[in-house]
Amino acid sequence: MFRTLPPAFHEPDDLHDLAVEMTAPREDNFATEDEVDDEENFGISAGYTYFGQFIDHDLTFDPASSLQRQNDPDGLVDYRTPRFDLDCLYGRGPDDQPYMYAEDGVHMLLGRPLTGVESDAGTRDLPRNSPTTGEPRALIGDPRNDENVLVSQLHATMLRFHNRVADVLEQRHGRRLRFEWVQREVRFHYQWVVLHDFLPTIVGPDLLETILPGIRTGGPWSEKPNLKRFKWRNVPFIPVEFSVAAYRFGHSMIRPIYRLNTTLLNRQQIFAANPFESLAGFRVFPDSWAVDWELFFDMRKPSPDLGKNRLQRAYKIDTSLVNPLGALPPSITAGIPSLPERNLLRGLRMSLPSGQAVAASMGIPPIPDQDLRIGKATAGAQATNHSLTDISPSFAGNAPLWVYLLAEAQQQFSTDDTPIRLGPVGGQIVAEVFIGLLYGDSHSFLRQNPLWRPFEEFTQDGEFMIADLLREARKA
Prior knowledge:
Blueprint: H1 12-22, E1 40-45, H2 47-59, H3 87-90, H4 149-173, H5 179-203, H6 205-211, H7 240-243, E2 257-258, E3 268-269, E4 313-315, H8 339-349, H9 355-361, E5 373-374, E6 386-387, H10 388-391, H11 401-410, H12 424-440, H13 445-448, H14 466-473
Helix pairs in contact: 1-8, 2-4, 4-5, 4-14, 5-6, 5-12
């Protein structure tokens, strides 16, 4: 997107020091469920963190890149189609991967029953094989969707939503339809949620309206979207500024601890040495760990703010990552265990421009160095957060793009309950790439059928959001 801008050079030692500053102190006593957590983002609930991860796995997959060598962005191969086509869900289809599908070749295969959610007795795990030794492997289109309990159960819910759509179409037409027809409708519903729920939540509806006029009223769209920076010659691609910097905002949204359902006595940590306390994936977790999505998405009106029934919110988009992300377990990564350091080194290897250079090229005044603060966006931390240049003078006017975009979002902070979305630079990059990929895909609903609408029986007050998708999946 900004290939004419010079790369921002930084010494790896400076990036290491920055990563240490971005990693929050270790917490042994987490906020209780009966007190307000000042790190929570009152504009984004916790489920969007993992829905964003699911979307990422749908768009990108690069097993060839490495932090240990210089990467050429033009030479990278995306082994995942850069489209919102759910290939992470469907893999290569029932003909080529029949073990992921039911016997009829139309419905998706589901895993073992899970318990813990009284309102959803049909919760399932991912389908898994049965090896004689070792952990059972998930039989899914993208193995990364088993890397933690939350994204794995979101994937399993999408399998159920596919089956729900298949059942509704069969009832409508009085016969079982071909897999491709069901798949198309599932993809369209998913794309609708990405465009009308996920994007407005992350970047705000006003910015979306400037790129895709009519988004507030649901279209139809007769004109090309207003893409100022994301352009391509033949087919859309995944810009490195998006994949290596802008779309990594979700790492700052991760909470250290989550309640999966109200029947469990305790909450679980994202990483813990004890497997019965850890949400780490690639394994069979306890049957009682069914995820109650009402605790992760705003599916109730109103949702309580306190107690074990409360709506858990994502952590704020800021320049602080929870402590466990500074020491990832070997099962997730080898080599450098710090997630912020890995992100910073990846940006260096990919020769990304500085945040200030990108902002200026977009006609947006760069944020002054003294206002680029590193740390939590909370009232208690504001006075002690260091400026980026306090960590190293080499960052003066030369902030790593990923850090700049997090600090840009942090500029919105006023009080602890201020909703924080991506700022003007980060929001523009993410929104243009999402809308551009949808518009560039001739098989998306935006191009194939701009008049398409979600199934009427799936909507609430004429809207179809992720909460509605989750409700319908429960009926499968």
